[in-house]
């Protein structure tokens, strides 16, 4: 610091000689924020009682109360203010007394102004540091109080002997343990509980890892499951070294945060996500998990004929009733023999599935059973009020599929339309149409890519109005090992992957690669998700774990049409992700749905305007439409990203409309992480 006033000092100058007092006062005011003056010790004490003083500069020989008496009075009243003494006399007794009274400096008159200001500056630095330390002490005390209020806290030594335990934890333990316990060590409390972590399976493992980390000055943090008197709880268990002397840990602080309610909410959501809301049957996600975990399976996919006609004619309420009746009929009617292990699922829209596990029955037996099932539904009528609705079904089957049981069953189901049959076995198709062959080939390429680290991510920059990179969007790519390692874009594989059992594995790989790229780029990243992803508990758990640790902001993007499948589930997913710091973006807004329910129900942060609108912003109608979307979003404090910005003209128009961020080939094309790091610049900016 070069000037005392930057230290924000209040100086008190005590001098009985009026000429000297006024002269020094004027000089001090050039270097300090506030300067107070007094002609003797009595007047100085009155000022100190009314005003906060940082440094005192005082003469010794003064009337009423001299300098030494003044300082002695201050010290007896526990005022440890720094003092500089000025005197024209060189008396040993004064010097000795000044040392006893802890005077900082003894300056001889006539006062050397440069020396005085240097001493004030040094004292000011010390005072400033003391103020900072005091602020931090108060801050730490407040942190400690806040932690004690919101968490359970234990302070113990390294042997586990408890030094202090928070009142909240005492009450919790007393409410859950009948015995009155005289707590001696933390580890003795543990005998009343069963607890385990995700990767630490018993008390001893948890204790050992905690002590190992803490004694090495690391922070231990785990979510621990506790069973207390037959009740299950989840706590985040964090431990760290508190008191360290001579590089040795003496005391440990343990903070226990009760996460039970949060986990219950998550478990309830996961239970919901595993089931179809209308029929309460296990859903597509549950089926895929089963397909991934079992072998020697037969999958039967059943489609309700004329489903769209029912929906358009009678509405969703009637359609839901029809689906429930079909579900009841499938479960109550014994189409298969009792010793056949079967399970019914509800897939999307009009689709049901039945999974048959290992069976010694042949295909002809299964064909007979399914033909009877079709005949049964031909005679089945759903009655609702005065309506009588005839039901017909078609069935696609795959037995022990070679590539993907679900994909093959869906192909067989689609094939019923081409050959005008109610029942098709994929295994019996001699010449599936070209499109199906292509799907199977693509599925093979994706499977091979998953096995050989060939599912990769390209990154496309998103810039602000000043052309600074705000973030990147991660875009899935697949290396085609069957074609000279060429790169497949999503339009060639995404629809096929989404209909396969490998979709979850594919999504997880994309998330992991996106996070790796974000770390290398040292930048925020946006990750695209489908509705299947946001209702998949394993994907939710993966995202939670990523969001807890990742140092850069993550934006989760999903298509406008995807979230419309279930606004409530979309809303719950967004709330969970935002609680971990994620931003939520709606992608391709305006691509055909433009449902403003999002603004009212879903906590979105970013709106990405679809390229079809962005390209037409140079037209009058297109300009007005984009302008209205931007204006509406701005009022709701939602950021706007324009996609497919392909020219400077479009960029400038959007910038004038106050669009926040821009993405497209005018900025730069999607590139691999290595290409970005090697080039380090954008194409056109």
**Could you name the CATH homologous superfamily of the largest domain?**
EAL domain
Runs with pLDDT <50, length 5+? 1-5, 192-200
> How many DSSP helices?
26
Q: Helicity range of the residues?
A: 40-55%
What is the correct CATH architecture of the largest domain?
A: Alpha-Beta Barrel
Radius of gyration: 37 Å
CATH third-tier fold name of the largest domain: TIM Barrel
User: What's the arrangement of strands in the largest beta sheet?
Assistant: 19-20-22-23-24-25-26-27
Round the mean pLDDT to the nearest integer and report it. Answer: 83
Largest sheet: 8 strands, mixed, barrel
> What's the level 1 CATH class of the largest domain?
Alpha Beta
Strand elements, count: 27
Distance between the termini: 42 Å
Shape label? elongated
**What's the number of structural domains?**
4
Strand content: 15-25%
Structural class: alpha/beta
Outline the structure in words:
This protein has 685 residues and is an alpha/beta fold. The protein has four domains: 4-145, Response regulator (Rossmann fold, 3-Layer(aba) Sandwich); 151-258, Beta-Lactamase (2-Layer Sandwich); 267-432, 2-Layer Sandwich (Alpha-Beta Plaits), CATH 3.30.70; 441-679, EAL domain (TIM Barrel, Alpha-Beta Barrel), CATH 3.20.20.450. The chain is built from 26 helices and 27 strands. The strands form five sheets. The chain has an eight-stranded mixed β-barrel, surrounded by four helices. Strands 7-6-11-10-9-8 form a six-stranded antiparallel beta sheet, sandwiched between helices. Helix 2 (41-50) packs parallel to helix 3 and helix 17 (503-521) runs parallel beside helix 19. The two termini are 42 Å apart. The model is unreliable at 1-5 and 192-200 (pLDDT under 50).
């Amino acid at each position: 610091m070069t000037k005392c006033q930057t230290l924000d000092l209040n100086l008190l100058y005590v001098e009985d000689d009026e000429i000297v007092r006024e002269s020094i006062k004027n000089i001090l005011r050039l270097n300090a924020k506030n300067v107070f003056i007094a002609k003797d010790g009595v007047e100085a004490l009155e000022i100190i009682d009314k005003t906060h003083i940082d440094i005192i500069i005082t003469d010794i020989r003064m009337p009423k109360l001299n300098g030494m008496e003044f300082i002695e009075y201050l010290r007896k009243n526990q005022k440890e203010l720094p003092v500089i003494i000025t005197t024209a006399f060189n008396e040993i007794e004064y010097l000795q007394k000044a040392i006893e009274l802890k005077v900082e400096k003894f300056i001889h008159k006539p006062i050397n102004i440069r020396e005085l200001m240097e001493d004030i500056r040094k004292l000011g630095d010390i005072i400033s540091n003391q103020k900072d330390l005091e602020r931090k002490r108060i801050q730490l005390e407040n942190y400690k109080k806040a932690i004690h209020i919101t968490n359970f806290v234990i302070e113990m030594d390294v042997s586990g002997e408890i030094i202090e335990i928070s009142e909240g934890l005492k009450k919790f333990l007393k409410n859950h343990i009948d015995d009155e316990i005289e707590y001696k060590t933390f580890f003795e409390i543990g005998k009343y509980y069963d607890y385990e972590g995700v990767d630490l399976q018993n008390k001893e493992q948890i204790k050992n890892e905690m002590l190992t980390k803490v004694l090495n000055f690391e922070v231990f943090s785990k979510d621990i499951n506790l069973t207390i008197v037959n009740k299950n709880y989840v706590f985040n268990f964090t431990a760290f070294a508190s008191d360290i002397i001579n590089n040795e840990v003496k005391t440990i602080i343990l903070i226990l945060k009760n996460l039970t309610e949060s986990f219950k909410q998550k478990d309830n959501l996961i239970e919901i996500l595993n089931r179809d809301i209308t029929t309460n049957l296990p859903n597509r996600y549950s089926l895929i998990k089963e397909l991934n975990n079992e072998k020697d399976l037969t999958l039967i996919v059943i489609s309700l004929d004329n489903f769209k006609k029912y929906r358009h004619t009678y509405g969703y309420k009637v359609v839901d009733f029809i689906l429930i009746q079909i579900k009841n009929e499938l479960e109550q009617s014994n189409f298969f023999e009792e010793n056949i292990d079967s399970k019914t699922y509800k897939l999307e829209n009009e689709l049901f599935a039945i999974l048959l596990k290992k069976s010694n029955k042949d295909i002809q037996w299964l064909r007979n059973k399914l033909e009877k099932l079709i005949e049964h539904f031909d005679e089945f009528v759903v009655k609702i009020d005065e309506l009588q609705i005839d039901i017909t079904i078609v069935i696609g089957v795959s037995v022990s599929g070679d590539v993907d049981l679900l994909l093959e069953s869906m192909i067989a189901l689609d094939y019923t339309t081409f050959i005008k049959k109610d029942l098709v076995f994929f295994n019996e198709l001699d010449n599936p149409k070209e499109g199906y062959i292509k799907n199977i080939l693509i599925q093979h390429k994706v499977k091979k890519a998953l096995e050989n680290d060939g599912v990769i991510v390209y990154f496309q920059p998103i810039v602000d109005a000043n052309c600074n990179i705000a973030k990147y969007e991660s875009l899935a790519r697949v290396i085609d090992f069957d074609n000279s390692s060429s790169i497949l874009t999503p339009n060639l594989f995404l629809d096929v992957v989404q209909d396969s059992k490998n979709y979850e594995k594919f999504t997880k790989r994309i998330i992991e690669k996106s996070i790796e790229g974000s770390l290398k780029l040292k930048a925020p990243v946006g990750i695209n998700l489908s509705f299947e992803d946001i209702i998949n508990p394993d994907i939710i758990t993966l995202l939670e774990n990523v969001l807890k640790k990742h140092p850069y902001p993550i934006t989760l993007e999903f298509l406008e049409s995807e979230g419309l499948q279930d606004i409530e589930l979309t809303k719950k997913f967004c709330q969970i992700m935002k609680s971990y710091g994620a931003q939520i973006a709606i992608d391709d807004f305006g691509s055909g749905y433009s449902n403003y329910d999002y603004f009212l129900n879903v906590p979105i942060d970013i709106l990405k305007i679809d390229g079809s609108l962005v390209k037409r912003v140079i037209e009058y109608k297109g300009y007005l439409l984009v302008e209205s979307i931007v204006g509406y979003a701005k009022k709701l404090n939602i950021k706007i990203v324009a996609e497919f910005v392909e020219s400077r003209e479009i960029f400038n128009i959007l910038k004038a409309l106050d669009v926040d961020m821009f993405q497209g080939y005018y900025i730069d094309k999607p590139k691999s992480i290595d290409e970005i790091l090697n080039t380090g610049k954008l194409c056109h900016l």
